[in-house]
Design goal:
Helices cover 40% and strands 16% of the residues. It is globular and about 50 Å long. The chain folds into two domains: 85 residues, Rossmann fold, CATH 3.40.50.10860; 124 residues, NAD(P)-binding Rossmann-like Domain (Rossmann fold). The chain contains ten helices and eleven strands. The chain is α/β, with parallel strands linked by helices. The strands form three sheets. The chain has a six-stranded parallel β-sheet with strand order 1-11-8-7-5-6. The structure holds nicotinamide-adenine-dinucleotide. Nicotinamide-adenine-dinucleotide binds next to helix 10.
């Protein structure tokens, strides 16, 4: 069993981006990300803080808009429109979830697709599904990067994704397909989950249930990627995979923390830099 070190790989990516941003600066090009946070959700505030820190490390300018929970749909749409039209802004990120009175789909759709560094706009989702260039959702893009940089080939492999969410499961499946994997998507209505997952060469788990996947779901020698992240009662983090039970059976596995988690921000930064190229 080999651990896939997401912390190290994400650092490598950030260092590569730092060099790229310096080169761009020499050509007179700046990279600027606008981050919008509505309301005072503490977890969102931490995510936004981490994104700003990563920008600072790489040399990306970050513009921060911290709006009260009472912000109206019209006010938010008007800010997005202003940022869409601001040539100096390359990327726009609206931290989700939004307060309940604002429709997230409408807000995402309002972002100029060429500035949608989260890759959530329907145009970018469509581009991914028909094999055109566009921004890809950061967490699944990070998983592909982890596999590639760990020397794991995807082509021809039996890849199983557990979960079909718009931000992880579905784009994950599309990306594995783009890499020529043979892809199966499973979800809460899958009839016999174990019989499918136990045939996977590469198993990507994005269920949202702590330690759900035990050794009996996993084929001997499989690559297991755990997207899940949960805080346990003892304050420690764990994933959707029961790491202690599964690890021994795998050829490669991502830990939680230090696996997929750090890759999300690294790929967001990559999307920001690419928005300028
Ligand atoms: P989600 O709740 O939107 O989707 C969960 C999916 O799992 C659903 O499609 C559902 O059909 C499937 N599922 C639920 N129960 C199942 C079962 N018993 N058997 C099979 N499938 C089942 O969650 P999400 O947004 O895709 O996130 C999944 C996990 O990944 C969460 O733990 C989340 O915190 C984590 N996450 C981590 C990052 C990161 O940066 N590391 C980013 C996004 C999400």
């Amino acid at each position: 069993m080999q651990l896939i070190n997401g912390k190290e790989i994400s650092m490598q990516i950030k260092d590569e981006l730092k060099v790229k941003v310096e080169e761009l600066k020499k050509e007179g090009k700046e990279v600027t990300l606008a981050v919008i946070l509505v309301g005072d959700d503490p977890a969102s505030a931490v995510y936004v803080g981490n994104k700003k820190k990563a920008c600072e490390y790489i040399g990306i300018n970050s513009l921060s808009y911290e709006l009260p929970a009472s912000t109206t749909r019209e006010e938010l749409l008007s800010l997005i429109s202003k940022l869409n039209n601001d040539e100096k802004v390359n990327g726009i990120l609206v931290q989700l979830p939004l307060p309940k009175h604002i429709n997230e789909d409408e807000i995402i759709k309002a972002i100029d697709p060429s500035k949608d560094v989260d890759g959530f706009h329907p145009e970018n989702v469509g581009r991914l599904s028909i094999g055109q260039k566009g921004f890809v959702s950061c967490t699944p893009a990070g998983v592909i990067e982890l596999l590639k940089r760990s020397g794991i080939s995807i082509e021809g492999k039996n890849c199983v994704v557990i979960g079909r969410s718009n931000i992880v499961g579905k784009p994950m499946a599309m990306l594995l397909l783009r890499e020529n994997g043979t892809v199966t998507i499973t979800h809460s209505r899958t009839a016999d989950l174990k019989s499918v997952t136990s045939k996977a060469d590469i198993l990507v788990v994005a269920i949202g249930k702590p330690k759900f996947i035990t050794a009996d779901y996993v084929k001997e020698g499989a690559v297991v990627i755990d997207v899940g992240i949960h805080r346990m009662e003892n304050k420690k983090l764990c994933g959707d995979v029961d790491f202690d039970d599964v690890a021994e059976k795998t050829s490669f596995i991502t830990p939680v923390p230090g696996g997929v988690g750090p890759m999300t921000i690294a790929m967001l930064m990559k999307n920001c830099v690419e928005s300028v190229l």
